[in-house]
Design goal:
329 residues; alpha/beta; Quinone Oxidoreductase, Chain A, domain 1; Rossmann fold; 2 domains; six-stranded parallel beta sheet
Length: 329
């Protein structure tokens, strides 16, 4: 089979498409023929050596999220069978399993069967964004009617999922984007308001939209110096989530959090997917949303596996709106 690896840390150019044996699934594992891969910024960070964990050894592989068909199941009762269409969820370390490949051995605990009406493309685009947004906004923050949710980097797949979930639960999603080019798409996704920071002052607009109270929840993947500004725009007693570090800059502790009684909450999706009960609730929520049609796994564009370097270059360009996919023949 063909597999994507990197032999050194760095930019997209370090990715190589190589030949390798597919591996044999052991107990609690399955071999999946990968058809579609969903790209995530976490994978770009892992490749560059800036992720929450480092590659234990090189060469290393990549990939949290994909969809395909089971080709072999390891020993033990799993509930899965050869021929099942499945999504692979982000439940594991990329040091242990990777899905940037034509075939991948993965734990059965990372699999979920796809309903007949869900395409493989949707199955590779939906889980990381919606599980991530669900975990913070629903499982932890418990947002509801009237709450205001401020969403920086709102055009990402996770940002769009947060907009959809907030709106569905009666909260008011305020999207933040740098340029006006993405404003219409964010409004179409359901943002109650869009703040374009190249043209508008973020603080002025958020305080105007919240009548001076600030946002009940802020859902930030950027970090860096701007984190202090977000703390000042979080309502008293509100929650400021930090679930990424796209700025790659130091993030000072905001003193505003002390006086305003703000809960600053570090968060990653594995908090949900590693906990059986919370994971089950999250899967039920997302599955219902797909069936009901309100949950939209927004897809920007697809690349063939041969163009994985170009796909990662596009991922880091920040030009996309929603999910980037890689298709495997």
């Amino acid at each position: 089979m063909r597999v994507v690896r990197f032999h050194e840390l760095g930019g997209p150019e370090v990715l190589r498409l190589e030949e390798a044996a597919p591996g044999v699934p052991g107990a609690g594992e399955a071999l999946v023929r990968i058809r579609v891969i969903g790209l995530n910024r976490a994978e770009a960070s892992f490749r560059a050596g800036r992720y929450i964990e480092q590659a234990r050894e090189l060469p290393a592989g990549l990939g949290y999220e994909a969809a395909g068909v089971i080709e072999q199941v390891g020993d033990g009762e799993s509930g899965f069978a050869v021929g099942d269409r499945v999504s692979i969820l982000p439940t594991f370390s990329m040091n242990d399993y990777q899905v940037y490949a034509e075939q991948a051995v993965v734990p059965v605990s990372a699999l979920v069967k796809l309903a007949a009406e869900v395409s493989l493309e949707q199955g590779a685009a939906v889980w990381m964004p919606y599980l991530t947004a669900y975990g913070a906004l629903v499982d932890i923050a418990g947002i509801g009617k009237g709450d205001t949710v401020l969403i920086p980097a709102a055009s990402s797949s996770v940002g769009l999922a947060a907009i959809r979930i907030a709106g569905r639960l009666g909260a008011v999603p305020i999207a933040v984007t740098r340029t006006a080019a993405k404003k219409a798409a964010l409004e179409e996704a359901g943002a109650a308001a869009v703040v374009v920071t190249d043209e508008q002052d973020l603080a002025t607009e958020v305080l105007r939209l919240t009548e001076g109270a600030g946002a009940t929840v802020v859902f930030d993947p950027v970090a860096g110096p701007g984190f202090n500004d977000l703390a000042q725009l979080t309502a008293r007693g509100g929650t400021l989530f930090l679930y990424g570090s796209l700025s790659n800059q130091p993030t000072p502790f905001p003193r505003a959090a002390i006086g305003r009684g703000i809960n600053i909450r570090g968060y990653v999706v594995f908090e949900i997917t590693a906990h059986p009960v919370r994971k089950a609730r999250a899967l039920e929520f997302v599955t219902a949303g797909l069936a009901e049609g309100w949950l939209d796994p927004a897809i920007d564009r697809s690349f063939p596996l041969d163009e994985i370097v170009t796909a990662h270059e596009y991922l880091e360009s920040n030009k996309h709106i929603g999910k980037i996919l890689v298709t495997v023949d």
